């Protein structure tokens, strides 16, 4: 990117649910299209993500560790963390669920700003696709290391994830 994108972070509201879902699906497609079938990126998948984000953001107690990055008047990324989910033996009390940026905003500092805002220097865990070298490098620079745990990503048949901790 020749020009540094200006962005700002904020807590999202219910009105942001559809935009977050679109970023979620777009980034999944850009990252995992070579690993997952097209049904993970179709209109049905988008509607499921919209419903998920509407539900998450309509809670009486909005998520405390959820931020979006905005640039040029739209959401370009988001990060969400909380209590470990779907982990029978969590390594940490805090888990990064998602951190996604549209491809054209990667490398702008928005991902680092989101990570710093949501996790700060806290000990945490996360699951990342084994075949996602860019993300694994980013997390390594931020002190995360594999702890030896692996699993198949829920909703897939062969997308292997590794757990990283710091």
Could you explain the architecture of this structure?
This protein is of the alpha+beta class and 166 residues long. The protein has one domain: 3-Layer(aba) Sandwich (Aminopeptidase). It has helices spanning 17-32, 43-57, 110-119, 133-141; strands at 8-10, 66-71, 74-82, 95-101, 125-129, 145-152, 160-165. Strands 1-2-3-4-5-7-6 form a seven-stranded mixed beta sheet, with helices on both faces. The longest helix is centred in the N-terminal third of the chain and has 16 residues, at 17-32.
Short description:
With 166 residues, this protein is of the alpha+beta class. It has helices at residues 17-32, 43-57, 110-119, 133-141, and strands spanning 8-10, 66-71, 74-82, 95-101, 125-129, 145-152, 160-165.
Q: What fold name stands as the CATH topology?
A: Aminopeptidase
What is the overall silhouette?
A: globular
Instruction: Return the string of H and E elements.
Output: EHHEEEHEHEE
The total of helices stands at: 4
Write the layout of secondary structure elements.
Elements: E1 8-10, H1 17-32, H2 43-57, E2 66-71, E3 74-82, E4 95-101, H3 110-119, E5 125-129, H4 133-141, E6 145-152, E7 160-165
Parallel strand pairs: 4-5
Antiparallel strand pairs: 1-2, 2-3, 3-4, 5-7, 6-7
Helix pairs in contact: 1-2
Which labels suit this protein?
166 residues; Aminopeptidase; globular
């Amino acid at each position: 990117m020749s020009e540094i994108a200006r962005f700002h972070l904020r807590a999202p509201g219910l009105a942001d649910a559809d935009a977050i879902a679109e970023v979620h699906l777009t980034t999944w497609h850009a990252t995992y299209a070579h690993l997952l079938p097209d049904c993970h990126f179709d209109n049905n998948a988008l509607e499921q993500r919209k419903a998920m984000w509407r539900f998450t953001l309509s809670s009486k107690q909005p998520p405390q560790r959820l931020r979006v990055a905005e640039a040029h008047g739209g959401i370009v990324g988001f990060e969400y963390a909380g209590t470990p989910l779907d982990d029978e033996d969590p390594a940490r009390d805090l888990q990064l669920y998602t951190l996604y940026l549209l491809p054209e905003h990667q490398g702008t500092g928005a991902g680092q700003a989101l990570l710093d805002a949501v996790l700060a220097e806290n000990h945490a865990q996360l699951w990342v696709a084994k075949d996602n070298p860019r993300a694994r490098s980013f997390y390594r620079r931020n002190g995360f290391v594999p702890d030896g745990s692996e699993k198949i990503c829920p909703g897939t048949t062969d997308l292997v994830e590794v757990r990283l901790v710091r």
